[in-house]
Structure prediction request, 255 residues.
Amino acid sequence: DSPLDADAGGEAGADPDGSPIGLASPPAEVLPALLQEPSFDQTELTGIARVGYSSLTGIVNADYGIESYSELVGAYQSGELTQCGGLGEGGMQHAAALTARSTHGLDFDQYVAYGGTGAVAEAVVSDEIPFGFGTDAGFQSTVEAGDAYPVAIASSDPSGVFPDWPTMVDEGFENIDFIGVLNRLWFGPPNMPDEVQQTLESAFEAAYNSDHVQQWSEDTGNAIVFEDGAAAEEALASAFERILEAVDMEQLSGN
Prediction:
């Protein structure tokens, strides 16, 4: 069985009365579904709201003196750098690295997989690998210590953690939000009645506009947004469509 059957299968088959709702973070759930199809279709869930995002971010060891994504791509194309790291093979970071290679020319020869963002940061700082992908929040302390630069911000919107660093799109590279943004989306079961969906959607909008939530975002650097249920459904459907177009699933699965 797909791991998604245990994670979200209950929500997909639940009564659409508004009591069972769940958080999805595509493309995190999209990749497992494409590699091992679950017993339900995620795109049939009822969108409630898009409430936030994290920027997939790549850091490079500061000793290389590389301070932009353009310089990083050039270092790989020249052969100065050959390895790239991130979380385990088959996941979001691996897919992002493959997409950056095929779309932007980030021509690494080897992808090295680690168990978490902290392990990626340690590997970059120790120069076990020169560059690695993770989440912006997970790399915050490493960057603040001056040990690495967050040169590869894969979201087109600014990172909530590193707002002063340009994104890949800012530097003129093609938008890869479908794999570079870890969305925070709320969904309910399929066929949720409109009045139930709208009540929940309004509740999330009120929470977003509250002083407490706005202050939490400012204090923590977590990027928050409010977009309606239709936007949540579009973000999920787009992730499926764009990943299938851009990512070699056989290469991602190691076959």
